[in-house]
Write a structure and sequence with these properties.
Blueprint (H helix, E strand, L loop, with lengths): L30 H14 L4 H7 L6 H12 L10 H14 L3 H6 L6 H21 L13 E5 L2 E5 L19 H15 L25 H6 L21 E3 L2 H4 L2 H12 L6 E5 L11 E5 L2 H8 L12
Antiparallel strand pairs: 1-2, 3-5, 4-5
The structure holds a DNA duplex.
DNA sequence: AATACTTCCAACCGCTGCAAT
DNA sequence: CATTGCAGCGGTTGGAAGTAT
């Protein structure tokens, strides 16, 4: 068994001898502590964090030092409020990555996972909640009409040929957001079955209003030609989600077409992409068959270049 | 001015993954 | 193969600061 985390606990060679107890500090960092850590890091660089804490003369655990450095002291940190562009990026990446804050942060230079997480939980989540509550979910049981499902990110439409029974099994603790799931499943079904209609107005809309991030940009439509995103099957694709996450949803949605498309989709993934498999226990939302592909930064920036509120240009 | 309430964010906590032994 | 220790991650919390009454 692992020893319990010593962070924040008394360090002592003998629990009966209080004279040897060195109390580790907790709570807010003083300017003096910041100074010590900053100087140590700048002159010695990052090493073992418990050594950093000791050598810098800080009565903090290494974990605490690491967090302070990463979230506050790092020289490359961008301070201040998030710009609208950054906000859009966060929303976009969250729709693709879910609560993988560190991965989102890696795509936003100068921002930390903690910062983004806080921003999401305090600001964006609230806004999305408001926008979704202002919309009226369609509760009709029609087998012909596309189904609409309300999520924290707004109202989503499901093609009529796809079952939505797995939605009730959705695990809120999953690192994949419901919106991410829908984006992926919709994208896959679209790739496979051009007969499935989805009007532009019914398209996935993260705001539940008029801002749509998912109309296919020219740049992404073109990508299919180089084998990265599966073939262009000759349809007017209104929705095309890049393979940041490749989800095998066929079993759960009960769509043979999706099953086939998923194979095509998987095969067409860029071989250089790192793909990891998250183990699970049979519940889809707990990770079974969930495969996550990662992009490099350039790929992601190419992906976000179509966001309407942004003015991103890739420099060759 | 005083109090209650809300928001925001820095830091903590518990957990997992991984490498070393 | 089991154990250990560390790094890193995401969820949660405590409290300072701001706002409303």
């Amino acid at each position: 068994m692992r020893k319990p985390d010593q962070c924040g606990k008394n360090i002592s060679n003998s629990s009966s001898s209080s004279s040897h107890v060195m109390k580790l500090r907790k709570g807010l960092w003083s300017p003096e502590e910041d100074d010590k850590l900053m100087h140590y890091m700048l002159s010695n660089g990052q090493g073992c964090w418990s050594d950093v804490a000791r050598n810098a003369g800080l009565q903090r655990c290494g974990k605490s030092c690491r967090l302070r450095w990463i979230n506050y002291l790092r020289p490359d940190l961008k301070r201040g409020a998030f710009s609208p562009q950054e906000e859009d990026l966060i929303i976009h990446f969250h729709s693709l990555l879910g609560n993988r804050w560190s991965q989102i942060a890696a795509r936003l230079p100068g921002r930390t996972d903690n910062e983004i997480k806080n921003f999401w939980n305090s600001t964006i989540k609230k806004r999305l909640k408001n926008s979704s509550s202002s919309s009226t979910p369609n509760t009709s049981d029609s087998s012909i009409e596309p189904k609409e499902i309300s999520t924290t990110a707004g109202i989503f439409s499901i093609p009529p040929h796809c079952s939505t029974t797995t939605m009730s099994n959705m695990d809120s603790s999953s690192t994949l957001s419901p919106s991410s799931f829908f984006l992926q499943s919709m994208g896959l079904s679209y790739i496979v079955d051009p007969k499935m209609p989805m009007s532009a107005g019914n398209g996935i809309n993260l705001w539940g209003t008029t801002r749509s991030y998912l109309n296919v940009p020219q740049s992404l439509q073109g990508i299919s030609g180089n084998g990265n995103f599966g073939g262009n099957i000759g349809m007017d694709c209104e929705l095309h989600v890049p393979p940041l996450e490749n989800i095998n949803i066929a079993e759960n949605l009960g769509c043979d077409e999706v099953n086939k498309s998923n194979a095509i989709y998987s095969n067409s993934l860029n071989n250089s992409s790192k793909v990891e498999t998250i183990g699970g226990n049979g519940n889809y939302w707990e990770g079974d068959e969930l495969r996550v592909g990662e992009w490099d930064f350039e790929e992601l920036m190419r992906d976000v270049s179509f966001l309407p509120a942004l003015d991103f240009h890739l420099i060759d």
